[in-house]
Amino acid sequence: MDIQLSEYAGMYRTELLEQILPFWVSSSPDREHGGYFTCLDREGKVFDTDKFIWLQGREVWCFSYMYREVEPRQEWLDMALLGADFLERYGRDAQGDWYFSLTRDGKPLIQPYNIFSDCFACMAFAALYRIRPEERYKKIAVDTFHRILERQHNWKGDYNKAYPGTRPLRNFSLPMILCNLSLELEPIIGSGPVNGLIPQVIHDVMEVFYQPETGLILENVAPDGQPVDCFEGRLLNPGHSIEAMWFVMDLGKRLGDEQLVRRAVDIMLKSLEFGWDPEHGGIFYFLDAKGHPPQQLEWDQKLWWVHVEALVALAKGYEATGDERCRNWFIQLHNYTWTHFRDEAGGEWFGYLNRQGEVLLPLKGGKWKGCFHIPRALFQVWKTLEQVS
Questions:
Q1: Looking at the 3D structure of the chain, how many domains does it have?
Q2: If we measure between CA atoms, which residue out of 200, 87, 202, 184 comes closest to residue 145?
Q3: Pairing assessment for the beta strands 220-221 and 170-171 based on DSSP bridges
Q4: Per the CB 3.0–4.6 Å rule, which of 127, 229, 304, 345 could disulfide with 351?
Q5: Residues paired with 40 in a beta bridge
């Protein structure tokens, strides 16, 4: 039977509203100290109480976003404020940089070595300001954004383990996130600063890290954009490349640049084809650009975020271009993802599978997995496929 992608929209909507968001509303709030528990077992019971700033920020963003884009439910506003109040009280050091993790009651555990804590705190308060326009939320978002830009070329600072000068490398993660963060901040900071930032982040993603010889995006390159023949220099993360391409598609739509959108779709499809496991299905976590053994021992695991971000990219690619490759890949990936990651009994999805597609860890949340990729992806696919005829 010839399945229309629009037929999937209702399935993604139902999963978001009846399974995923209720799980986090029920299991993650810390009513005693504020913020959220993210280390949750299969049934949603807390197995560790440390609080990781980027997961706190992501959950504030998620409930703020759903409140604005889906329905102004009081419970979603309450969830957003619970996390934001905790972050506002405890999340930053004296310089305004965001810690990596805190104890349950807000004492710093790990220093602000990781700028992605800042990125997701910035997204959180920008989204919250749009539903609760209090100046202090705007100030936190704007101050954090400016601090990210100040630190972007040396964002690890004193916490960088690399010896200076021997093998300098640029990393793909921050330009990738800035593609998305710039659009998140536009309603707060205005189009002028965003217009100034967008050409640079598009250049970095599409020219510096993209390698035309292979059609793939490297995770690390030399400062001049040239590939470096070492473990880090050969590293591919198909999920990062695919996720970045839907960010670029959104930027291309904003700019009215159909050629940029088309190019992003082609790179996304190349990354997916290269990263697909032909034996067991699913997308590999890491690969080596030259086919050597990757240094990451978890290279062949199948991770939740990789697969759901790819579903978003394929839905957006099909909606924007009508490319049948996007449609066919979407159906194939949907079947794999919903079969292997979705836990019908537990209300949320598993995060970590082995190469064969078997569950490695039954947790629903932890140090890295929180209330972000799955709800965002379900929403994006739902809304995108509603537009497909």
A1: 2
A2: 184
A3: antiparallel
A4: 304
A5: 46, 365
